[in-house]
Every structure is written in C-alpha cells, then in structure tokens.
C-alpha cells in the first residue's frame, strides 16, 4: 500500500510530548504555541515564573505546562526530568532553545579608532562573557544530556513513526562575520551548531536525532530595539532580502517540519530561517 501524503498526517504533531527550554518568551514561546495549537503536549522550562505563567495562559488546548528551572543547574534539569517522567514516562522532542546575549558592539561608535575598539572590548566584564558560554553552550549541552533517557523511552513507546530528536536554537550570529551582538554570543552559537553536528553522529546509534534551527531577525527581548527601529525606517533588501523580520508563522513552519513525520528523515541538519540575511552580509555559512 502506498504511503499517505495527507498533509495532516505528514505534518501532524498530535500527542507529541515536547520540551522547550526558554519557552516563556520569544522564539521559544512561538514554537511552544505552534506545537500546542496543533495537538502536542508542551513543557516549557524557564527561570521566570511570570513569563511562564503568561505563556501557559496562551495555550489553545491547555497543554502548555510550566516547569521553573535554570538550564545551567543540573539539579534543576534533573527535577524537570523527574516531573515529566512521573507525568508521561517519555518525551519525543527536546528543543534546547534557552539562551542569552553577551557583551555587544552595539554601543561602539561607527568607524571607531583602534584605541576606542580596544577600550570597548577591554571594558567587557569577564563573568558576563563567560556566562554567555555557560548558558548558550553548557546549558544547552546539559539539557540534551539530562533528557536522553526520556528520549530513549519515547522511541520505545512507539507512539510515532519518526524517532526522537533534540533540536537546538542557534542564530545566524554563528555565521555572521560582522559580530554586532558580540563575540561571546556569536562564538557560543557557532559552538552549538558544531556540537549538534557531533551529537547527530554520537546519538545515531541510539536512534536519537539532532538538528539545529538557525534564526535571523525574529521578535524577542534581544532584538526588540533593532526591530522597532527597522519597522520605522524599513527593511531594505540590503538588510534582509525578504524585507521584513521573521514572524510566528515562519518559525512555526520550521519547528512543525522538523518534529513531524515530514522531518523524519532529517538528522544533522542546520535549518537557516533568516529571510536571506546571510546572503547579504559577510558570513561563513
């Protein structure tokens, strides 16, 4: 019998159990909402109770569930695993989305002298610089490690045709050679891309896939100022060929593709969703 090509079967996410870190705002919230609206059970993990509660209140079916925790804390991650294990016994997808910015170049004057450039980067707080890597790399990696048992249980559960997977949210900052958001942010996001390529190889024998979403300009706390300014002045093709920032439908399409049967044959993939931004700036992609 021929396989079904019905769109609801191919792209359906009904009854998936998904974990999204940093799901209380920004891209994490958009992904959580898209998944839950289409039938998935979504656990969002974050540090801020108010943001988590607001996110849960937007659930279409009442299936955005909150867990307060810090991804840099192994005890917090273990507690989250225990809570989900008690409720379901397995997960199908973990989206390691939580991340922070770092010391940036946004306050550096245009065409700054070498002296000014040196003074600016030397003034950065070392703890802030290192914290960016602790969250964006260490926290993401530990999130994956914490949930491997439940991802394996998801495969054994057999509720889906596609195998379990981990997905990281990186950034085009990983590939952009003009580091407006700073070297710690771009470096940490580049590290995530490479680690997930390695994880796709390391986890393959255990039937767990690893993929990366690489967003460009999307609404978030980190990009709010830039997007508000550009919305006033416009988005020329020289900035983004699509002449706009990404929106909820754009990121929904990416996550629904990857976690559904449509993305079942995807492993070790780096999915850039940036409206063509990397094509018009110096980049290494």
SSE order and pairing:
Elements: H1 7-11, E1 17-21, H2 26-37, E2 41-46, H3 49-57, E3 64-68, H4 74-87, E4 93-96, H5 114-122, H6 126-157, E5 165-169, H7 183-202, E6 209-215, H8 224-233, H9 248-259, E7 270-273
Parallel strand pairs: 1-2, 1-4, 2-3, 4-5, 5-6, 6-7
Helix pairs in contact: 2-9, 4-6, 6-7
Characterise this structure:
40% of the residues are buried. The protein has nine helices and seven strands. A seven-stranded parallel β-sheet has the order 3-2-1-4-5-6-7, with helices on both faces. The termini are far apart. It has 285 residues and is α/β, with parallel strands linked by helices. Helix 2 packs across helix 9 and helix 4 runs parallel beside helix 6. The longest helix is centred in the middle third of the chain and has 32 residues, at 126-157. 43% of the residues lie in helices and 13% in strands. The protein has a single domain, classed as 3-Layer(aba) Sandwich (Rossmann fold).
């Amino acid at each position: 019998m021929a396989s079904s090509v019905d769109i609801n079967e191919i792209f359906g996410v009904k009854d998936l159990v998904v974990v999204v870190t940093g799901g209380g705002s920004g891209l994490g919230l958009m992904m959580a909402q898209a998944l839950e609206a289409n039938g998935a059970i979504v656990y969002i993990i974050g540090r801020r109770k108010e943001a988590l509660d607001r996110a849960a209140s937007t659930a279409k079916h009442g299936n955005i569930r909150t867990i307060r925790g810090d991804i840099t804390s192994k005890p917090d991650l273990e507690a989250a695993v225990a809570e989900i294990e008690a409720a379901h016994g397995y997960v199908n997808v973990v989206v390691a989305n939580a991340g922070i910015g770092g010391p940036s170049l946004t306050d550096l004057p245009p065409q700054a002298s070498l002296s000014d450039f040196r003074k600016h980067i030397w003034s950065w707080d070392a703890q802030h610089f290192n914290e960016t890597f602790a969250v964006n790399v260490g926290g993401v990696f530990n999130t994956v490690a914490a949930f491997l048992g439940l991802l394996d249980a998801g495969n054994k559960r057999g509720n889906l045709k596609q195998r379990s997977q981990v997905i990281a949210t990186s950034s085009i900052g990983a590939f952009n050679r003009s580091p407006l958001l700073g070297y710690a942010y771009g470096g940490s996001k580049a590290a995530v891309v490479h680690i997930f390529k390695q994880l796709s190889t390391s986890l393959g024998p255990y039937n767990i896939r690893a993929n990366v979403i690489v967003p460009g300009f999307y609404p978030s706390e980190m990009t709010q100022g830039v997007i508000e300014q550009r919305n006033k002045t416009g988005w020329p093709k020289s900035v983004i060929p699509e002449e706009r920032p990404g929106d909820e439908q754009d990121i929904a399409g990416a996550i629904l593709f990857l976690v559904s049967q449509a993305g079942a044959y995807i492993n070790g993939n780096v999915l850039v969703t940036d409206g063509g931004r990397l094509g018009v700036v110096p980049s290494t992609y």
